[in-house]
Amino acid sequence: MPSVRRWTVVAAVSVLTGLAMPVMAQSTAPAASETRSINDWLTRMHEASRQRAYQGTLVVSAGSAMSASRIWHVCDGVQQMERVETLTGAPRTTLRRNSEVITFAPETKTAWVEKRESLGLFPELLRTPRNAIPAFYDVRETGVDRVAGHKADRIEIVPRDELRFGYRIWAEKNSGLVVKMQTLGERGVVLEQVAFSELQLDAPVRMDKLSQQMNDTKGYDVQRSVQKKTTPDAEGWRLKESVPGFASMSCYTRGSVAGSTEAPGMQWVFSDGLASVSLFVEAFDASRHGEEKVASVGATHSVTRRLDKHWLTVLGEVPPATLRRFADALERTR
After folding, report:
1. Residue-range domains of the chain with CATH
2. 276-297: per-residue pLDDT in tens?
3. Residues with Cβ < 8 Å from 16, sequence gap 6 or more?
4. How far from the centroid of its chain's Cα atoms is residue 102's Cα?
5. 2-11, 129-138, 272-281: least confidently modelled range
6. CA 21 to CA 31: how far, in whole Å?
């Protein structure tokens, strides 16, 4: 079963770096006196991440847990790179070049290399085949605050149903770069917060230096994950009914590391344009899989369930009821 805490940390870092956000329909920037639509705001945030280099300290609060990381980010308009160094917990340094990711663990001298789908402004945001966001979310502008020493517009993205969470976002006033975000549950309760405590815009971050660091694996045991693109039909799975607003984005089989004899598991990813849900299916193993349950860390929830000879984990930053709808709909076709 994937780690809920690991998912939360990875997603939170992606919240503010805006790495490879999906291309949305281009819209003409509104005049200063006009109110921006939700697509105007998201496009503005996306462009800010592509046009600015920055470095800063990012603090993540999820439930009773808190963590901090140092981030260096640069983009030349096509290629994006970043370095994320943990300041709390076990030492970890993650470097990313677009979808190429390597994580260094200096204490064990281990480095994990993997490919990840393009992440975006929101947790695990993937490219969507259609822009359905306005059908499921509304937006309202609520004022201006200071975050990490920068003036920021404060907006709220409000869900139109109970299948998804809302967001309160602070975007740096001049550029639109996201500097803080809260994930909101029922009655506006803050489930999770990600914010820069210190931020330097237009920082002298060099892409060639990050590339050099990413390629320097001397002295590390490099392990590579095995990932193969597939389809749910090819793996013998389908949803007997869809979950409103969520479109199928990708499907992969995943092994632990190259050369592993462990049977690969399947990951099926869905997105509504902002929130995403992953279905992990693997062979049931009584020695590893415990009781069926619902778990949460901050805004990240998971539902685990046995399906005959398989073990299902449904994971995402959505309400548990949404995850249960996915779990109830998944069925074996052969």
Report:
1. 4-221 (2.50.20.10), 225-332 (3.30.200.100)
2. 999 999 999 998 898 899 999 8
3. 58, 71, 178, 179, 180, 181, 194, 195, 196
4. 16
5. 2-11
6. 24
